[in-house]
Amino acid sequence: MRRGCQDEGPDCPDTTDIERWMLVAPSKQQRMTLSTNHYNFGPIKPSYFCTYYLTFDAFKLLCNSPNSVLVASNDAVSRELSQTTPQRAMVHSRLETLPPELIAAIFPFHETRGFISLGLCSQTLWTQAITWAQSGYIRWNSAYSWAGTPMICAGSRLEVFPHSISEIFPRARPEVVPQGHAAGEGPRTCTQPRLWFDEATEKFEKSPIPYDDDYREEFWKQIRSSGIPIRFYEPMAASFPTFTIRPGTKWYLRNLTQKEYIRMEAIVTADGEVTISFLETHWLTLDILLLWLISWRGKFGNDTWSWEHLRLFQGITDEGLGDIMIDPTYGPLDHDFWLIWAGNWAGHSLDVVADEVLEGWVDQSDMIKLLSGKVLRTLYGLAMAEVGGAESEYWAKIFEQSGEVVDLQLYSSGSSGEDDQDAL
Questions:
Q1: What does the domain layout of the chain look like in residue ranges?
Q2: Where would I find the beta strands (DSSP E) of 227-383?
Q3: Strand pairing partners for 110?
Q4: Inter-residue contact 233 to 130 (CB < 8 Å)
Q5: Nearest CA to 286 among 274, 298, 270?
Q6: Which of 37, 66, 64 is nearest to 52 (CA)?
Q7: 149 contacts 25 by C-beta, under 8 angstroms
Q8: How many Å apart are CA 224 and CA 234, to the nearest integer?
Q9: Is 235 in contact with 71 (CB distance < 8 Å)?
Q10: Digitized pLDDT (tens) for each residue of the chain, 424 residues in all
Q11: Residues 205, 30 contacting (CB under 8 angstroms)
Q12: What Rg value do the Cα atoms of the chain yield, rounded?
């Protein structure tokens, strides 16, 4: 999976017709913008985020069982590197002669770029840098974990908050307030929730990507101009601590607000990302599942869906998929994704644990199993209609592997899902 929360550039209020979506932890005043640099799309909606099979490192954000993950470097590679790297016969610099504790105290004052640059100055500093990086996930998790705190994926056209967020911001009333005038137009208006969105965009801290990927990516940017022999590149990269979990181990996505949970399992994606997915449904990663549960477009008159209401979701039917195969302009439209625009866990406190869930909690795994096939068809339809390329091939393969078949003879009559729900 490719990371889908990039630096979106200079922050500014939404003054265009482009709907922007942002993952927010309001109580921590931290946020991430849904975006992708792939195909130069920039900000994208949750439905496209899922179809492009992107990630926002949801597992690392929500993991609340630190003893069940392993954060370590390849010790064998590190030892081999120290034995094969030529020792410089020159006098150490004053910085290198400092006690390891003092050198470690210097690293926190450097951003990732400066940290890597300093480490590449000498073998001594590199060894110290790798040692310091070993505890990097603990520091990152302490500052940026969203486990146990309310979170929501909100759109920039907010009119109302879900009840769970309104309790956090009681002053955010759904009244309309003046926003100024644009040239040649009448007065523009926005709601208190939309003002909150703009303020969060401007003032909330951007949650950085997890330390392991951050360091490794910066290492590859600098190493080729460092003068270090090429044969040491791979061993040095392998020295960085890696975040791992054992594939197949059982995990639970918990809703602490509602005392509900969903059964998950540990996987490693085709491109090596460590995460969890719904049981026996590896395409339904934690990132994708969360966006279907916590996204909130916030139209007047809507509240989060109940589980019983979600039973009505149909998504794209055989007829709809058949139409798209014949003519991609047939869909799907926003109303085909109606379940995602008012996620029933929007604004709730969530975490991911490896421990068995205690009695008194409600298992919603059967509901996710019921919905997963419909979600798959809808994402496959969007991939065929508007995305294409590798993504369309990916979802076609998943669709086939799941045992799904489009019966083109089914739709001599009937609806194509247009009666499913009105657009929100």
A1: 1-73+146-223+242-304+342-356, 75-144+224-241, 305-339+365-424
A2: 242-244, 250-255, 260-268, 274-278, 281-285, 295-296, 349-353, 362-363
A3: none
A4: no
A5: 274
A6: 37
A7: yes
A8: 12
A9: no
A10: 566 665 454 444 444 567 889 999 988 999 988 876 555 556 788 999 999 999 988 999 999 998 887 776 655 555 555 555 545 545 567 777 787 778 878 887 788 888 899 889 888 888 888 888 877 777 888 888 999 999 999 988 888 888 777 777 655 555 555 555 444 444 445 678 888 888 888 888 887 666 666 788 889 999 988 888 898 888 888 888 777 888 899 999 999 999 999 999 999 887 778 899 999 999 999 999 999 999 998 876 667 788 888 888 887 877 888 888 888 877 677 777 887 888 899 999 999 999 888 789 999 999 999 999 999 989 989 998 888 888 989 998 998 888 776 665 544 444 444 444 444 4
A11: yes
A12: 24
**CA dist., res. 209 & res. 192, Å (int):** 30
Residues 6+ away with beta carbon under 8 Å from 75: none
In whole angstroms, give the CA distance from residue 126 to residue 149: 36
DSSP 129: H
Of the candidates 212, 204, 198, the one whose C-alpha atom is nearest the C-alpha of residue 151 is: 204
**DSSP per-residue letters across 140-196:** HHHHH--TTEE-EEEETT-S---HHHHHH-TT----EEEEEE-TTS-EEEEEHHHHH
Burial 118-141 (b: 16+ CB within 10 A, else e): bbbebbbbbbbbbbbbeebbeebb
Residue 350 has φ and ψ, to the nearest 5°, of: -130, 160
Q: What's the one-letter identity of residue 177?
A: V
pTM: 0.80
CA dihedral defined by 129, 131, 133, 138, rounded to 10 degrees? -150
231: its two tokens: 């044969």
User: Is 373 in contact with 380 (CB distance < 8 Å)?
Assistant: no
For residues 165 and 172, give the distance between their C-alpha atoms in angstroms, rounded to a whole number.
Answer: 9
Question: CA separation (Å) from 362 to 257, 288, 365, 397?
Answer: 12, 21, 9, 33
DSSP annotation string for 210-230 = PHHHHHHHHHHHHGGGS---G
- Burial (CB count within 10 angstroms: exposed 0-12, middle 13-18, buried 19+), residue 85: middle
CB 54 within 8 Å of CB 283: no
Asked whether 247 and 267 are in contact (CB, 8 A), the reply is: yes
Residues 6+ apart with CB under 8 A from 319: 410, 411, 414, 415, 416, 417
